[in-house]
Each structure stands twice: as C-alpha cells, then as structure tokens.
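Worked example 2:
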Amino acid sequence: MPAAPLPTVPSLPSPPSFRGRIGCDASGGYYAVSRRYRLHLSLSCPHCLRIAITHSLLGLEETLPVVLLPAVPDRPDGGHSALRPLYEASAHRHPGPVAAPVLTDTWTGRIVSTHTPDILRDLARRFGADGSARPAPHLHGAEAEIEAVEHLCVRVNEAAQQAGQAEADAAARDRALTSMLRVLGSLEWRLAHEDFVLGDEMTAADVQLWVTLVQLDTVHRLHLDAAAVHRIADHPHLWAYARRLAAHPAFGRHLDLDGIARRHHAHCQGLEAAGAAVQILDWAVHIADESAQPSQEGPDGFMEPQYALHLRPSNSA
C-alpha cells in the first residue's frame, strides 16, 4: 500500500564542529580498519541511543568498541570531563561543550566526528559484522525518505517542548500540541498498514522514530497536562510498534530508563504537569519481554530478516 505523504518540516539545526568521515581506502585519511575507531556514548542521550542501537543492529561489537559514559554529564555545559582530552587533542582550547556522541581514531587520539547522521552513515557504509559490502542509507532512493522521517521526529520533539512550556500562553501550547498530533497521526496511518515506518523492512528511520517515542514518553510528557498525554497515547498502532521494538535485543538492552530520568531532572528547568503521572508504556516490562522471546536465528546463525537492519526500504514503501 502506498505510504502517506510526509509533510514539509523545517531544516535540521546546524552541524557541530567535527565532521570527519570514514573513507573507503587509505587515500581518504580515515579508512575502515577493525578496532581502529572507538565510540564514546552516553545512553541517556537520544543521539547516543540511536548510534548504540544501530551499532548493535549491524553487529559491530567486536569491530568498533564502545566506551560508555555516565548518564548525567558532569560539566555545567552538558559535557563530560572524560572527553576533554580528546577535544583538546583535536582542537586546541576547544571552546564548546565536550559532549557525546564522539567517534574517535585511536591511532591519532583525535576526534573523527561528533555529528550523529554522519556517524550513522559511516557505521552502515564502512563497517559490518560479516565484512561484506553494506548498503548505504542514502542510496537506492532510501535517503530522502529516511531524512523525511528524521525531520518529522525533530518536529515532534520541538512541538512537545513548546507544548510543555509553562510560560507560554495556552494558544501557543495548543498549536504546538496540534502540530505534534498531526505528525503522530501520519505515522499512525503508516504503521496501521506496515510493520515498519517505511514498509515491511526495518530501516534507519525506525531507529530514529523509536528513540523519539522513548523521549516523548520518558521526558516530554512530564511537562504536558494529562489530557494532552491521553491524546498522544491514542495512537494504538504507533505505541504497539514502540512496544514491539522495545522487546528487540538491539533496542531494549540499550534503554537506560533510570539514566534518562536522572539526566532530565539534573538539567531541566521546567515545571512538571499532570501528564507526569500518565505513563504511556511500561518500558521496563517490554524490555524484560526480550528475554522471553524465542530465538530468531536462522540456520546459518544470522538473524532472520525481521530482526536485521535494512537500510533500503522495500518497493512498497
């Protein structure tokens, strides 16, 4: 069935300072070598959570090690002191926050990238568990749709923040809530007819959407009134999809609910509203369901297709 049209949304924010890329060979400077690079992630950060899930879906545990940082950054600018030496080695007297995610080169001790979309593309294009060529998320017609979903998720996050601002007038909050519900309704329509957001195969868009739903239920709803949260919850296919992915090993095992709560309360300046008491999903229960799932490995030891990350949507998307 054809997918519903995706509405036009504003551009993403400007990229951060470090935008190195992993090339295909030595002439590109940074090139793919097993265990040369390292990811520094804090799983309470939504950008880091996206990278951690993708890293697991691609089976990169041995190829590209991960260093986990504390859930709550220890610097007032939202950065991690443990990352300061890497930032200083990469840019003398680096003026900005020393924040995660960070992809580093252990050969030089310098940062390759702090830009989440570039890191995700390079994980998919340049590395892989079986050493064979991987499909790139921006090729074969997939990139435009994946980016469209990413923009929609940005819109959901921004609208949720605006709808929960206590100092905003009621009309502005209502407009933001209406905008968010319109996007959620579009995604609900898609998931009523498809297993995944772009069709019958999992793509990078599903990672982005799932992390957005996690943020919506664990962070943004705390500043919304109960009526707004009930309206958000009234998308049964969307939240059934969120539950299903929570039970997937590559998703649920990276979800640090306590860390997300501590990070939010450590830095949030907003006021809690009645929606804080209306939990949409019991994420911990659905993560626990992961251990009860039957094995999905095929005869060759690899995951069956429904549990693999496909970075190109099906023709039906």
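Residues 72 and 262 are 7 Å apart (CA to CA). Confidence is low (pLDDT under 50) at residues 5-16, 131-139, 291-317.
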